[in-house]
User: Fold this.
Amino acid sequence: PMKALAYDQLKEFKSLEKGTGIAFSPAVYDGDTPKSKRRGIRNKSRVILTNPHALHLYLSWHKLWQRFFSNLKFVVIDEAHWYRGIFGSNVAYLLRRLQRILDYYQNPEPQFILASATMADPVEHAQKLTGREFSLVARDGSAKGKKTYFFWDTTKNLDKSQHLQTAELFAACVENNLQTLCFTVSRKMSELTARWAQEKVKDVASYRAGYLAEERRELEEKFKKGEIRGLSSTNALELGINIGGLDAVVIGGYPGTVSSFHQQAGRAGRTGQESLVVQVLYENPLDSYMLTNPNYLFQEPTEQAVISLDNEHFLKSHLLCAAEELPLTAADSRWFGPRCSAIAEELRKEKKLVLKKKASKTKQAKETIYIKEYHCVDKGACFQVGLSSFERER
Assistant:
């Protein structure tokens, strides 16, 4: 779901390619991919890593992807729990649009593989997200070392702000030779936390969305190599790069869900070494509850990843995108449900779709059959629909 994760996985695939001697030309294809390399990736790569926002745009140009889509055997969705709420509901329709295009290229049955470490209802969620049936593989084979959890009450020291206390705890971990990742509540706080920590220790930097791709890659490499000992970040790295030597995580403020807490805490100790998690709790009701009831985080199951396929706004937006990709017909209820034709007709009345009749003859039929097709009026529907927003973007 995030660029950092894609580039981290790319290195693993390249190592696998080199080790096995099997050429499959793995590549990342997203907004950071140079235009000069895109055609070569589409025409040669057998493994492509991307994110939903990029895929959402590329489906309109599916003819450029005919080779890849015609031969696609596996669709792997990592960090599947991330696809929930508005974003997850939009991605569910996006995946149906993808399957519709694969079917158009006579490739209707690729295997979907979903992965997640923190999900209460994995099979149900996977089925809603993709519309496919799933089997659960639940054995955990990851390395596990002793993990110590420390809860810090910022209200005990009113002389320093809660964010400054977070920065000082972050600096203390780095000062004690612990490679540390500090999660902050905002981009601005990520920058400030790094700046405050730099007053006490060296080799500390900030990582957040908004940096140039080259800057992000450079920070990731330096952190993985240990050249940077501390990194403050928004939740951009909650799902991100795999730093095997990460010793400690400082979480500035309760992240809002049990799932996010365990995702962030799980960044440390991934190679089996002992690790430390410092949960810094701020002055608000939810953080106060976690301070007095820390067992809640370890006894309660992770939250269900809720998505909605009943929201007409989502369906309308994605039918508009789908109509630009391929004309809509009554047969598309297979992908978008029984309301597909009715909502397509609504979009026609709104003058966003236009109805055309296509003549068709079958071997069995002696006379011509006319199929209703809905075509998109304006080009670029995908640019008007944001995956993380409720309404269509203007």
Summary: The mean pLDDT is 90. Residues 85-104 form the longest helix (20 residues).
